[in-house]
């Protein structure tokens, strides 16, 4: 779908303004530490990069597995209510799954809505599950039992460390991760620049 949409975009642009330059590849300059730090300061997001030795498989197998792994990680973060702004994968000697989050931390408690009070069996079970615990509630709101309970993960980094191998990963990617990986956050992304300075430049200068 992305390739189809990109093709449509460039065909429309070419029709509106036919130029030779549209057929030429133009890459941005690779990022240096100062440029990366400028992007980080401007965006005020929390990027997290998982870096590991690239699996020894052909590119036709590697990139779909990286994409599957990226999608699984993003879905798991979303399940724990961490908002992902954008995510991408890179590969060379190492592979990288980069996830950019709106924030790394969430409140210590989360809201959990129970069943309507009039649904007696389920409502009673919900009430009895929480009434003797240290949650806030149960209380009633809009006809439902509600509790505010301790959140399982306050930090996205901790969530990744705890759930990485519970998500749907590509098999070669999972084996590579089991042999060790680096979890880089914030300004630690400068460690990626020697290998992925151009990839990060493309990430921070996205275009159609």
Task: Describe this entry's structure for a reader.
This protein has 208 residues and is α+β, with helices and mostly antiparallel strands. The protein folds into two domains: 31-100 and 155-204, Alpha-Beta Plaits (2-Layer Sandwich); 109-150, no CATH class. The protein has seven helices and seven strands. It has helices at residues 2-16, 33-43, 59-79, 120-130, 156-163, 171-178, 193-204, and strands at 46-53, 84-91, 94-101, 109-116, 136-141, 144-150, 182-185. A four-stranded antiparallel beta sheet has the order 2-3-1-7, with helices on both faces. Strands 4-6-5 form a three-stranded antiparallel beta sheet. Strand 2 and strand 3 form a beta hairpin. The radius of gyration is 22 Å and the shape is elongated. The protein starts with a helix and ends with a helix. The model has no long low-confidence stretch (mean pLDDT 92).
């Amino acid at each position: 779908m992305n390739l189809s949409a990109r093709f449509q975009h460039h065909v429309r642009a070419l029709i509106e303004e036919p130029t030779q330059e549209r057929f030429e590849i133009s890459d941005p300059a690779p990022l240096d530490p100062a440029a990366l730090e400028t992007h980080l300061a401007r965006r005020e997001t929390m990027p997290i990069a998982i870096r590991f030795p690239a699996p020894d498989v052909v590119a036709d197998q590697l990139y779909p597995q990286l994409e599957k792994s990226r999608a699984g990680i993003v879905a798991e973060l979303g399940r724990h209510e961490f908002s992902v702004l954008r995510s991408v994968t890179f590969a060379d000697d190492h592979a990288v799954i980069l996830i950019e989050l709106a924030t790394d931390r969430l409140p210590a408690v989360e809201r959990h809505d129970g069943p309507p009070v009039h649904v007696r069996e389920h409502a009673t079970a919900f009430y009895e599950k929480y009434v003797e615990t240290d949650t806030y509630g149960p209380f009633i709101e809009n006809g439902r039992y509600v509790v505010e309970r301790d959140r399982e993960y306050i930090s996205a980094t901790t969530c990744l460390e705890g759930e990485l191998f519970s998500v749907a990963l590509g098999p070669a990617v999972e084996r590579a991760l089991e042999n060790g990986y680096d979890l880089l956050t914030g300004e630690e992304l400068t460690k990626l620049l020697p290998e992925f300075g151009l990839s990060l430049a493309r990430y921070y200068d996205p275009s159609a």
